[in-house]
Amino acid sequence: MSLLKKFATVGGATLVSRVFGFTREMMMASALGIGPVADAFNLAFRFPNLFRRLFAEGAFNAAFIPLFARSLEEEGEAGARRFASEIFATLFVVLMGLTVVAMIFMPFLVKTIIAPGLAACIDDPETLRQQLSCEDRFGITVAFSRIMFPYLACMSLMAMVSGILNAFRRFFAAAAAPTLLNFILIGVLAYAWWTKADQQTIGFLMSWGVLAAGVGQLLMVTLAMRLAGFSVLLGRPRWTPGLKRLLILAGPAALIGGITQINLFVGQAIASYQPGAVSILTYADRPYQLPLGMVGVAIGVVLLPELARALKAGRLEEAQHTQNRSLEFALFLTVPAAVALFVMPEPIIRLIYERGAFGPDTTEKVAAVLGLYALGLPAFVLIKVFSPGYFARENTRTPMIVTGISALANTVLSFVLFWFYAERGIAAATTLAGWINAALLFEGLRRQGLWHVDGKLLRRAGLVFLSAALMGGALLVMLEALERWMGSDPNVIHQSLAVLALAGVAMLIYFAVAFLTGAADRAMVLKLVRRKRAAG
After folding, report:
1. Dihedral class, residue 169 (left if φ above 0, else alpha if ψ from -120 to 50, else beta)
2. Is residue 57 within 8 Å of 199, Cβ to Cβ?
3. Is the pTM of this model over 0.85?
4. Which contacts (CB < 8 Å, 24+ apart) does range 193-202 have?
5. 68 within 8 A of 249, measured Cβ to Cβ
6. Which residue in 213, 191, 210 sits closest to 202, CA to CA?
7. What is the CB neighbour count within 10 angstroms for residue 357?
8. Hey, is 131 helix, strand or coil?
9. 13-17: long-range contacts (C-beta < 8 A, 24 or more apart)?
10. Are 274 and 268 in contact (CB under 8 A)?
């Protein structure tokens, strides 16, 4: 299977998950808006979701896969099974212990880490009739967090099983599993609408839905692993050289691979000081996560095993080619997505969310944040491209230092900018920190001689930016022409047609210019077309 096909397999499955994620967020926005229940749910869900991203997209894809691949190559399937069982046993015990402790001390965690703003909350008598009291807001955040925290354990164990599947080059099941979360929450929200449940009841139902989805996703990838002819045993945890090496690699790798989620988590913790800000950031994050998930996750999942194999076999030229083509692929898809999200965030947000409890004023706030997030989209995808260059060589020290610098910059900038620009300041801080991270990672690879940018990449990158700029200019002209079809007054059909027209013409312009100028690999596109015709 070619590199492009592997990207398409993972990216396509992730795209399906993100599309259903949109549906889930649309229904949630309509039901909860940016009120206190929405804030409580988003705060509670972000904490276990942070660890899901750290493990699934960081530690196990960066540390476990190279070690598992080495065991598979050097000791055969029996050795790989022994290594995986050692890791699974330790991980299971640690996660169970962590879950019990966290659920006991959840009020303390909410006050200090998850939502410190709730500890400083003061009731406003003028607005209290429309809002929950500070005590109630704190109470439901703790309750939601306790219900959803076991999701962390399920996702961490799922990450390990997914790592095994990826090492065997079976990418689809792990990429498709997150869709189950969206299916379940969509069902929960539909049931809540049918029964006319109040907002607090909806929050509790969604929290239980998250937990059920975690169990379901773990069962799904475990079944896929068994179908692949591999299994792990749950035994007594033991300290082994393989476990020690994994821990040395996994800690920094989790930090590095999950920098986007760490930045978002820090931003939400700071945003908890202002009612509604947490939900605004969350709703803006969803459209931005669509291209990031489709391209960034696909590259992160596929690139690392390919690089690790090429380097272990001494095929350095192949490794360089893989890195350059991955960067080329990332820029080709994310630069136009970033331009489109920056130019037209308000029509997108209005079409997706503006109904029910989500009004026009909220649309403006969320759109402003989305526009700032869009500027950082290429940076966070580039991080996914650059990080495997270190991880495949089992080097986590350099990227850990870089990530530490980026996280510190994000925290400082978030604190400073929040007091001047509220949630927009947090979005700007996240974007700036992302570019700092990407730039430092690339410079580290270049200085160590681990990445040589070829002429083909430079030429195509320049043409990609030119194509995206022409597309952005066309979008600005069309936005003005279609303005009366995309306001708050027209019905959703008019809005949908206008946004679809904008998206369709923008894609046509971008891909036409990219194909004609050579920003896209014409030979590769024609080859794929011929294959499809032959298959048909």
Report:
1. left
2. no
3. no
4. 193/27, 193/31, 199/31, 199/32, 199/35, 199/37, 200/37, 200/140, 202/31, 202/32, 202/37
5. no
6. 191
7. 17
8. coil
9. 13/171, 13/172, 13/175, 13/176, 13/179, 14/175, 14/178, 14/293, 14/294, 14/297, 14/298, 15/290, 15/293, 15/294, 16/176, 16/179, 17/175, 17/176, 17/178, 17/179, 17/182, 17/293
10. no
Q: Which pair of tokens denotes residue 411? A: 């925290």
The CA radius of gyration of the chain, in Å to the nearest whole number, is 23
Closest CA to 144 of 32, 259, 26, 274: 32
478, amino acid identity? M
Distance from the Cα of residue 526 to its chain's centroid: 31
Assigned token pair, 358: 């989500």
Residue 231 CA neighbour count, 13 Å, CB half: 7
In 33-64, which ranges are continuous DSSP H helix? 36-54
From the list 299, 373, 317, the residue with the least C-alpha distance to 340 is 373
Joined together, the tokens standing for residue 179 give: 């869709």
Whole-angstrom Cα distance, residue 391 to residue 311?
A: 11
Tens digit of pLDDT per residue, the chain (536 long)?
455 555 555 555 556 666 777 788 888 888 888 888 888 898 888 777 776 666 555 555 566 767 777 777 677 777 777 777 877 788 788 888 888 998 999 999 888 888 887 776 665 554 444 467 778 888 999 999 999 999 988 888 887 787 777 667 666 667 777 788 889 999 999 999 999 898 899 999 999 999 999 999 999 888 888 887 777 767 677 776 766 676 666 666 566 555 656 776 787 788 888 888 888 888 888 787 777 666 655 565 555 556 666 666 666 676 677 777 777 878 888 899 899 999 999 988 888 888 887 888 888 999 999 999 999 988 988 887 787 777 667 677 788 788 888 888 988 999 899 988 888 999 999 999 999 999 998 888 888 877 777 788 888 889 999 999 999 999 999 888 887 777 666 577 778 888 888 888 998 999 889 888 887 766 655 544 444 444 44
Instruction: Determine the Cα–Cα distance for residues 9 and 1; give it in Å rounded to an integer.
Output: 10
Q: Which helix (H) or strand (E) holds 219?
A: helix 199-227
Contact between residue 281 and residue 423 where contact means Cβ atoms under 8 Å apart: yes
Are 337 and 377 within 8 A, CB to CB?
yes
Q: Which is nearest to 28 in space by CA: 496, 352, 367?
A: 352
